[in-house]
Amino acid sequence: MIYHSLFCMTCKKKLKDTQIICPKCKNVYSLVTLKYFVRKKLSTIEEMYRYFLPFQLFNHNDFKNCSLSKYGDGLWLKDEGLNQSKSIKEKDILIGLKCAFYLGYKKTMCVSGGSGIQVVSSLSKNTIPVTLYSPTSTRILVDNQILMGNDYEETFRMSLKMQSDDLFNITPGINPYSQEGCKTISWQLIESKIKFDIIIIPCGNGSSLWGIYNGFKEAKAKGFISKIPKIFGVELAHGPIHHMLRTGKIRVNKNILNSKAISVDVKESFCLQKASYATKDSHGGIVKVSESNVIDSYNQIRLANKQISFTAATAFAAALKLRKKNPKSIMCCIMTSHH
Ligand SMILES: [Zn+2]
């Protein structure tokens, strides 16, 4: 027996395939996720792509296996900036778009103020139309891009109000199908046969962290690994996920730092309940990094002649901090983008 369904993590209600927001809980924070029922025994990790991604629409070759390179003792870098659109978001948007098409939508929308803009424009050329919504401070970079809202959070909230029956919102921050994309990163790491103790990922909404955690969790349930690595997210000072881990409460961060690491300099993380659950369950956590940590890390990676964004550099900065407490651990930093 093989099937999956959407369910709400708060009220546990099973939802229809198109209900990406729970009609009972109605929260702007992402609480809906997918649960898979796969009784079949799987013999290779490649089969995870078929049975643990939505509607059995995908296979191993649909996702680029971006380079994993050793950077010093026990430290590896997985460079998702090597995706065609130079961003980790490519894996999420690919799934969001294909699911929208499968579910019969003719139009989609996606909110992004950063690297998602190029991703959407490069992937959507041959599929269904996407309207991109970006904050008014963003430059217009592509066709079908509309500016609204003063910041990402406002644009995100406005987009949820625009939802209609013929329009699918594929923004990874809210769409549970899109959030499945980063699971493939975990499976690629398992394929490498390196036994990672710690995975480190920069957090804006926290959806990539959630995806990576689920990829490992499902692979463990199917017997491909015996232990889920500790998953650590990276935030700046006053990060919303760290606040939730400490207090159990959602707080809007009023202290935006205007950091160079724009994708982690956020007021709200719309997947924070999921991200905090994943860090707790895997015995990881949140590492906070300062602007000088970010700039030092960026310069260090650039000296090694590697492309990197300031956001991606936060993962490396966090690894240097974790290294002090975990000198023998094998760690992997997920470098999220080149821009
Ligand atoms: Zn609910």
Q: Can you describe what's shown?
A:
By secondary structure, the protein is α/β, with parallel strands linked by helices. The chain has three domains: 2-60, no CATH class; 64-88 and 182-335, Rossmann fold (3-Layer(aba) Sandwich), CATH 3.40.50.1100; 90-169, Rossmann fold (3-Layer(aba) Sandwich). It is built from ten helices and 13 strands. The protein has helices at 46-51, 89-102, 116-123, 152-161, 183-191, 207-221, 240-247, 272-281, 291-303, 310-325; strands at 2-8, 14-15, 32-38, 68-70, 75-79, 107-111, 130-134, 145-147, 167-169, 198-202, 230-235, 285-288, 331-335. It has a six-stranded mixed sheet with strand order 4-5-13-10-11-12, with helices on both faces. Helix 5 packs across helix 6 (207-221) and helix 9 crosses helix 10 (310-325). The termini are far apart. Bound molecules: zinc ion.
Question: What's the arrangement of secondary structure elements?
Answer:
Elements: E1 2-8, E2 14-15, E3 32-38, H1 46-51, E4 68-70, E5 75-79, H2 89-102, E6 107-111, H3 116-123, E7 130-134, E8 145-147, H4 152-161, E9 167-169, H5 183-191, E10 198-202, H6 207-221, E11 230-235, H7 240-247, H8 272-281, E12 285-288, H9 291-303, H10 310-325, E13 331-335
Parallel strand pairs: 5-13, 6-7, 6-9, 7-8, 10-11, 10-13, 11-12
Antiparallel strand pairs: 1-2, 1-3, 4-5
Helix pairs in contact: 2-3, 5-6, 6-8, 7-8, 9-10
This protein binds zinc ion (ZN).
Count of alpha/pi helices: 10
Average of pLDDT: 95
Tell me, briefly, the overall form: globular
Heterogens: zinc ion
Low-confidence stretches: none
Widest β-sheet, arrangement of strands: 4-5-13-10-11-12
